[in-house]
Amino acid sequence: MAEFAFEPEPEVHLAPGESVKEISGRSPWQIAGRRLVRNRLAIASLVLFLLVVVCSFLAPVYAHDIAHTDPFTSNVSGTTVVNGQRVNVIQQGGGSLGIGETPIGPTWHSNYFVGADNQGRDVMARVLYGGRASLTIGIASALICCLIALVLGLLAGFFHGWVDAVLSRFMDLIWAFPVYLLAISLATVLLTKNTGLKFGPIHLSASSLWLPTLIIGFVYVPYVYRPIRGQVLSVREKEYVEAAISQGASSLRLMFAEIMPNVISTVIVLLPLMIATTVLTEAALSFLGIGVQAPKASWGTVIDDGQNLLYTRPAVAIVPGIMIVLTVLSLNVLGDGVRDALDPRAKVRARE
Amino acid sequence: MFAFIVRRLIGLVLVLFAISVMTFLIFFAIPGVDPARQLAGRNPDPTTIAAVRHQFGLDRPLPVRYALMMKRLFITRDLVSYGNQALQVVPAIKAATPVTFSLVFGAAVLWVVGSIVVGLVMVTFKGTFVDPLLMILALIGISMPVFWLGEVANLITQDRLHDTFLFSWVPPLGYVAFTSNPWQWFLHLIIPWITLSILYIGFYARVLRANLLEVQNEDYVRTARAKGLSPRRVLMKHMLRTSLITFVSLFGLDFGVLVGGGALLTEVVFGLPGVGLLTYHSLVALDLPVIMATVIYGAFFITIMSAVVDILYARLDPRIRPA
Lengths: 352, 323
Prior knowledge:
Distance between the termini of chain B: 9 Å
Number of strands of chain B: 0
Largest sheet of chain B: none
Number of strands of chain A: 6
Number of helices of chain B: 13
Largest interface: A-B, 49 and 53 residues
Low-confidence stretches of chain A: 1-9, 347-352
Shape of chain B: globular
Radius of gyration of chain A: 25 Å
Helix content of chain B: over 70%
Strand order of the largest sheet of chain A: 1-2
Radius of gyration of chain B: 24 Å
Oligomer: heterodimer
Strand content of chain A: 5-15%
């Protein structure tokens, strides 16, 4: 770094089919914003994702004003009106041998739109409520994960030495576990009935959505930490950081005011892909019974409820799965678009 | 090279030790579950709990308990399940391993072949409707939860279309050992293989496509074209071979993750009695020694696998051999 013959690196790369004129004189964020807005597929997927979010957060309105049901209490002896006739929600017979009980199938009316589950609860209302839980957990855990990874990556990359060694070895250790097994281990221990997590005054009960959120956020930290640490290592050698050091800037200032703005784009590129991943992980954990706990619903628990009804009432398992696919697909497409907009040359793995 | 391997192996041993400590701490040091209470049966009185605690050494200090646990897991290999004390953990995992291997191995063959074909088709037909269509299909593939896809596959092949000519050959869910009947082994696994591989076909095809598009501007590709090689030969012999380097390292890690427990959801949905299903059953019964053992097994497998990948990689490509 002793040379003074300094050549500014080209910080912005042209996207395919873009002219220099289009990006000259604009800030990197403006350029990225324009590119994203022009990417019709990315915008369409953003709209789709927001649509899923809005529908899910309107779940109470749907349950109360449209379906007129309470999706959290069982309604085994309830009735509903189909084609002007009053029918039982749980019907006798209908299994492969004509014995047992079968919940009502899709009525395509406001009440029991796609049918009921084993306990006579409205599946559509549960899917919407489930979406609220799944999306909350997915978004919150991705944010927590990125925040922790950003701070740790800044610390490790900025201080080098033993801080970096300790943090990076710990991240390698978490990395060595299969993500699902680590999440399963933590969830098994923390979500066992009647216990939960106690940290001094903070008590998280087993039914709190915070537990799965924190677990999922934690297990993915190394996947975001690694790229961020690498970037911090290279950014801290840049001239503007040296300039700030020569002005006597403190470590905190260097980390958060000089270096962070230059690595934040990596976080932004990873965020949609992380949400896609955490939504899938939440669904898997809830499907295994160690995510969201009954009577609360999430997409994963509704698929789990539908497993026993798979051959008689497949809609129970299929509908939440379609919601997951729509959400994750839209986030993956959006993530690709954001990546292309921020850094046309980057190769970020979707998933993993 | 020898020094590199030795260093990598020492690192490996340290990581394995750290993994076993961390797993042990997760299961036995986080307050919450009291294994003694669980072992003592329903509504135990305090004296029973204390007796059980002593019997299983749960009243000893943590480092001693760790050492005892690892001794029973790795040296005497007689660690028993807490839920069912006739179940020995190590033989149970040993019996389950071939099932997981069968599942992952077959799926791996499918996804390697499938993704190379899809990736090549995407690059060959770039600029036509085929490329974006396959891109979207690949994205849908990586966006589906594997357990949901498995349920849909079951719904179609076991029930809705089972009585038609399409899927009447599909046997009921379960597993038949290769050694007892290779044909039935194949039939039982074919739907799980396809289900598990779809995600990876989508993902690997995208990676391969990106790599192929990246190398197509390289000098050696231009040289190959300039000297008059057919486009197919340039694609297969020059572009594909270099693109496969990333592919191979990804493959090693993903294979390791799947054998190490990542195939759990597929095993649960299809009722395949592999390590994943064993983990799931012990999870439902909250059987801590078994879950701990399967997690350690999985993490060990992945770590060893990634060390092997590193060494192989250094063997293939001297540039990444650290000095």
